[in-house]
Amino acid sequence: MKQTPEYDKIQENMRKGVITLDGFLGDDTRKLVDIIAEDTFAIHAHHTTKEAIASRMEYFRKQGEEGLGEPITVDGNFEVRVDSVRGLLPSPFGGPGMYAKVNTSVLNKSSGKSIVYTDLHIHFIKDHGFFEGKGSPFRLEPKELIEILEVPQTEEL
Fold it and tell me: What Cα–Cα distance (Å) separates residue 69 from each residue in 72, 121, 134?
């Protein structure tokens, strides 16, 4: 897929120091559309969708809020903690609104693996299929996210 001038501008906004100190691309030199395409292929290989992943992320965030900053058990198998930090971030994709600096930590007790994600990650994945670039300190690997959160398979491919 060819990258549009609009995506070139979005990719520029994702570089280090523009919106955040670390940016969203890491050391990934690929075009934004290629990063998204590879991650889309990876999630489809696991028989799920970006919407199913984002829905599961939203579910744990909402459940974890009930712990008021302390870890709580969700569905018997997950330990979830939601922490808020002051401030808001805009999306490099543009659009309305800002995203709260909220971290959701999920530990899958069966596997012993955990993952941390933000409200901006949920937006990136749900609305754009973007998991951040390779080498980004906050990149979420689709396979790990799917496995840790036990994202259900879907027929919607």
Answer: 9, 19, 30
Question: C-alpha distances in angstroms, 25 versus 122, 139, 140?
Answer: 16, 8, 12
Give the SS3 label for residue 19: coil
Calpha distance 80→74 (Å, rounded): 7
Spatial distance between the Cα atoms of 137 and 140, rounded to a whole number of angstroms: 9
Contact 90, 98 (CB under 8 A): yes
Query: Number of structural domains, the chain?
Result: 1
Q: Per the domain annotation, does 128 fall within a domain?
A: yes
Question: Over its length of 157 residues, how does the chain's per-residue pLDDT go in tens digits?
Answer: 799 999 999 999 999 999 999 999 999 999 999 999 999 999 999 999 999 999 999 999 999 999 989 999 999 999 999 999 888 999 999 877 899 999 999 999 999 999 999 999 999 999 999 999 999 999 999 999 999 999 999 876 5
Rounded Cα distance, 98 and 67, in Å: 24
Structural domain includes residue 82: yes
Q: Number of H helices and number of E strands within the chain?
A: 5, 4
